[in-house]
């Protein structure tokens, strides 16, 4: 099929036009940026939604400010709040959502270039997205190590300590043990820095799903695609540069509302509904 001229991949900023561009092969190097909003339906609260977000429910830990629970310096002085929270959030009995399965479907269709996620719940892995197509930009509960000597520690050992409310210390150097999630004040994984430049050179369509775009450097990815690459926000609210998009600007498409319903609508437009349901049933 003839591909539309590169200059204006979308004739109008609508999700219908985006779906057309995916089916007619215009978009085949898709990057998906995701945040906590896509796991809310799995039962994991996000961080900043007023009232239900995690940062609104940390009073019992008596923190100086909510993000302190993920601050490396605060953690070294007072690790208890993080471990108590880890106990609540431990990714054990959560299941991927429709959105996680949709990203897996993009991979099966051969059009997923990369999924950059901020989530630490490992639901992308559970949904079957290939590790090489995944960048867990804020790390994950997947691996665990001593923050002092960096010795890797068995995750089961940590889980037992955390669930027994014992502070896990390294048997070699007495350092604190934590899952490899990126705390404020720590560097993002090397993989984030090595892949972003080449990826965004090739990216021909960007999805931004379930994130407030408040945390850098992850949020800066939204400005990395080339100027003619459409950006599709699927989110409860307008965030980041989408807040100031002009109405007729063909660059940005906004689908506001519950991402699970919006993704299902998109799958319908792509005629991928039965395949998506298949993946959802596999769980
Ligand atoms: N459908 C669509 N959007 C949703 C839904 C939903 N069902 N539920 C929540 N959202 C939106 C919220 O409106 C908000 O814009 O998802 C976004 C979630 O934003 P945050 O709670 O800030 O989560 P996130 O953007 O992932 O946070 C980034 O902050 O604390 C750090 O390291 C932590 O990775 C995290 C980072």
TrEMBL record:
Residues where Zn(2+) binds: 146, 149, 170, 173
Cofactor(s) the record lists: Zn(2+)
Keywords attached to this entry: Metal-binding, NAD, Transferase, Zinc
CC terms in the record's Gene Ontology section: nucleus
Range of residues in the leader sequence: none
Domain Deacetylase sirtuin-type: 8-273
GO function term, MF aspect, one: NAD+ binding
Catalytic residue list: 138
Family: Belongs to the sirtuin family.
Protein name from the UniProt record: Deacetylase sirtuin-type domain-containing protein
Residues of the full protein shown: 51 to 333 of 399
């Amino acid at each position: 099929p003839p591909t539309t001229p590169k200059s204006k991949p979308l004739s109008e900023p609508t999700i219908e036009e985006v779906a057309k561009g995916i089916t007619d092969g215009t978009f085949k190097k898709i990057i998906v940026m995701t945040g906590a909003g896509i796991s809310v339906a799995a039962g994991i609260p996000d961080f900043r939604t007023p009232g239900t977000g995690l940062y609104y429910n940390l009073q019992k830990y008596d923190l100086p400010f909510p993000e302190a629970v993920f601050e490396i310096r605060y953690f070294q002085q007072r690790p208890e709040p993080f471990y108590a929270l880890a106990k609540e959030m431990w990714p054990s009995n959560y299941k991927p959502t429709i959105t996680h399965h949709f990203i897996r479907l993009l991979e099966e269709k051969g059009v997923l270039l990369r999924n950059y996620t901020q989530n630490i719940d490992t639901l992308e892995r559970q949904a079957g997205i290939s590790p090489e197509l995944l960048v867990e930009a804020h790390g994950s509960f997947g691996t665990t190590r001593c923050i002092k000597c960096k010795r890797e520690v068995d995750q089961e050992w940590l889980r037992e300590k955390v669930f027994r409310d014992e502070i896990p210390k390294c048997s070699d150097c007495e350092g604190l043990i934590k899952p490899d999630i990126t705390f404020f004040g720590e560097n993002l994984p090397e993989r984030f820095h090595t892949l972003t430049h080449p990826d965004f050179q090739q990216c021909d369509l960007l999805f931004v799903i379930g994130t407030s775009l408040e945390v850098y450097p992850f949020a800066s990815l939204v400005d990395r695609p080339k100027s003619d690459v459409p950006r599709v926000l699927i989110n409860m609210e307008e965030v980041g540069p989408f807040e100031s998009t002009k109405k007729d600007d063909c660059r940005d498409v906004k689908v506001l509302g519950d991402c699970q319903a919006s993704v299902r609508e998109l799958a319908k437009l792509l005629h991928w509904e039965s395949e998506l349901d298949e993946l959802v049933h596999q769980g």
